[in-house]
Amino acid sequence: MPSQNSPLTLHVKELSRNYDQKIVVNNVSFELRKGEVLGFLGPNGAGKSTTMRMLTGNLAPSDGSIQICGIDLLENPKAAKAKIGYLPEIPPLYKELTVDEYLRFVGRLHQMTKSALPTAIERAKQRCGLVDVGNRLIGNLSKGYQQRVGIAQAIVHNPDVVILDEPTVGLDPIQVREIRTLIRELGGEHSVIISTHILPEVESVCDRVQIMHQGQLVFSDSIEALKRHMKGNSLLIGLRNPPEMTTLQKITGVSSINALPDGQFIIHYEADSNPSDLLIQAASSGGWELYLLNPAHASLEDIFVQLTTVDVTPQSRDTAP
Ligand SMILES: Nc1ncnc2c1ncn2[C@@H]1O[C@H](COP(=O)(O)OP(=O)(O)OP(=O)(O)O)[C@@H](O)[C@H]1O
Predict the structure, then answer these.
(1) What is the value of ipTM here, to two decimals?
(2) Please, what are the domains in the chain?
(3) How far is the CA of 97 from the centre of ligand 1 (A)?
(4) C-beta separation of 10 from 32 below 8 A
(5) Ligand 1 pocket member 42 (CB < 6 A)
(6) 129 to 135, 178, 319: CA distances (angstroms)
């Protein structure tokens, strides 16, 4: 797990995207540090692919800014894009080329010099377990190996940030395990964002998770924080008239808080210091109008469903894909 002192590789600030009148990504801000693997979750149509396409410079934002290793993607797209590797949902493979030919082609697209290419290709193949199939036609490889080629093309130019959109979809369980191990290894050197629907994948691969719903980020925290939810050292509370987060944080026993829509909060607490009684007292004396207080004994799936079934928009709108 990278520390807070690891360099920042991605800084996304107040990013939004509209299609006609419809806001599909709404004021999203987050950061990524070197070595970190970030899982990007959300139901269909939440806005994950749209966000990823903006991060990779394939779609212009309606608002907001994106900095890759301190370079502004909108002001200096060429330099910023050189620091990103992208595996889209449908890998852009040329099946009639061999693995080596294809990686050479992709390297040239990334403006790599002829002299730098052989070492870079060898390195990408080594990292992705492709050393023995360099001369094979991509079309003749198994789906798992084709996915490795997809990842190799995303890292051949040694980018700082690697973005993988649903990298294990359609693979068999053994291939899934291999690709997850590979992603974990990539995280040591690069920063990685993976978009996925598969909740156990997030647990096994990611350091941090972000959940998107109706274009907004509704959860952003470490896997440890997620696991705390699952262990149950957490309370779900609802307040009609909530105070500042700092006031909640001062209550004895509270270790951290996630704010949810509708005045709801997940309150994490240290083992053996359940702050329920203190919360009830504080809510009563502070006029916070407590309407919900439940232990959060949730599975990852429960948490996901809880966060992505509330309407987070001021007025309901069509989010059908
Ligand atoms: N080119 C477009 N024109 C209009 N609406 C679009 C366009 N592309 C995406 N959308 C809409 O934007 C919303 C977000 O889509 P997006 O593909 O980003 O979601 P997602 O979270 O990646 O979903 P999935 O998991 O199904 O890939 C959806 O409601 C979709 O219909």
Answers:
(1) 0.95
(2) 8-228 (3.40.50.300), 231-307 (3.30.70)
(3) 31
(4) yes
(5) yes
(6) 14, 10, 40
Q: What is the pLDDT of residues 266-283, one digit of tens each?
A: 898 887 889 999 999 999
314 lines ligand 1 (CB under 6 A): no
Give 41 Cα–ligand 1 centroid separation in angstroms: 14
pLDDT tens readout for residues 78-96: 999 999 999 988 888 888 9
Task: State the distance from the centre of ligand 1 to the C-alpha of 18, rounded, in angstroms.
Answer: 11
Nearest CA to ligand 1 atom 3: 19
- Answer yes or no: is pLDDT of 229 > 70: no
Q: Is 48 in the pocket of ligand 1 (CB under 6 A)?
A: yes
Closest Cα to atom 12 of ligand 1: 24
Q: Which two tokens stand for residue 119?
A: 């070492």
> At a CB cut-off of 8 Å and minimum separation 6, what does 45 contact?
319, 320, 321
User: Looking at residue 169, what DSSP letter applies?
Assistant: T
Q: Which of 201, 192, 142 is closest to 172 using CA atoms?
A: 142
CB of 53 within 6 A of ligand 1: the answer is no
Cα of 320 vs centre of ligand 1, distance in Å, is: 9
Residue 204 pLDDT class (50, 70, 90 cuts): confident
Angle between the 300-307 and 223-231 helix axes, to the nearest 10 degrees? 100
pTM of structure? 0.75
